[in-house]
Design a protein that fits this description.
The chain has 229 residues and is α/β, with parallel strands linked by helices. The chain contains 9 helices and 8 strands. An 8-stranded parallel beta sheet has the order 7-6-5-4-3-2-1-8. The structure holds pyridoxal-5'-phosphate.
Length: 229
């Protein structure tokens, strides 16, 4: 099989898996192809197969790809999913469509200073409480959102998390269910600049669980590229 055929097969597998795990009545989540490990040629193949949401985690790599794909850029939604250093904000903030990794107030402050338009942001939540994980603690969310009401360049569209790598299936279910509950709580609190209707969770290893727990955005890398490269 050519690389493109393999990509097509993988896309079909992902779509079928989503359908099989989607709770009755839920809309299908948006699938972000996490392209951090592949080049622009592979991204063009994905694009020609209908994939229009790309996720990157390094500012310089994102910028290079953004420039090299300038001819199709208008039609692509760019998701920044990685740790974003404060000094890197100004380089990318006006070119991305979504930021999944708002994990500290100092980052929000810098975005407020540098963004020309409100930026769609997910607040990253540390659902497991692990020291090694970045993100806000669940019990800090309400105060954080209160503080962010003064930041009109941030549009908090939802919450994002990652499950610990060593979590069992059952634990992953619990973490994702917890994030969904937190999202609903924030949504119902009606904070200014925080519609918070979305949940970004699930990667190649655990996206079926995320879908079953109500993810509206999933971030999938390796499952797209399996056997294709
Ligand atoms: C790399 C990455 C993904 C995708 O991971 P895969 O296991 O390749 O699907 C999702 N989210 C974040 C934050 C990532 O860094």
């Amino acid at each position: 099989m050519t690389m493109k055929q393999t990509l097509k097969t993988n896309i079909n597998v992902i779509q079928n898996t989503i359908e099989n795990h989607l709770p009755a009545g839920n809309e299908k989540p948006t699938v972000i192809a996490v392209t951090k490990t592949v080049d622009e040629d592979t991204m063009r193949d994905l694009y020609s197969l209908g994939v229009k949401h790309f996720g990157e985690n390094r500012p310089d790599v994102f910028l290079k790809k953004y420039e090299n794909l300038v001819d199709i850029n208008e039609d692509i939604q760019w998701h920044f999913i990685g740790n974003l250093q404060t000094r890197q904000v100004k380089k990318i903030i006006n070119d991305i469509d979504y930021l999944h990794s708002l994990d500290r107030l100092s980052l929000a402050k810098e975005i407020q200073k540098r963004a020309e338009q409100p930026v769609n942001c997910f607040i990253q939540v540390n659902v497991s409480g692990e020291d090694s994980k970045s993100g806000f603690q669940p019990d800090a969310l309400a105060d954080t959102l209160k503080e962010l009401e003064a930041y009109d360049k941030l549009n908090i569209i939802g919450l994002m998390t990652m499950a610990p790598i060593d979590a069992s299936q059952e634990e992953i279910h619990e973490y994702f269910r917890f994030l969904k509950e937190l999202q609903v709580e924030v949504e119902q609190s009606n904070f200014t600049n925080a519609p918070c209707t979305e949940v970004s969770m699930g990667m190649s290893q655990d996206y079926p669980i995320a879908v079953s727990e109500g993810a509206t955005f999933i971030r999938v890398g390796t499952a797209f590229f399996k056997d294709a490269l």
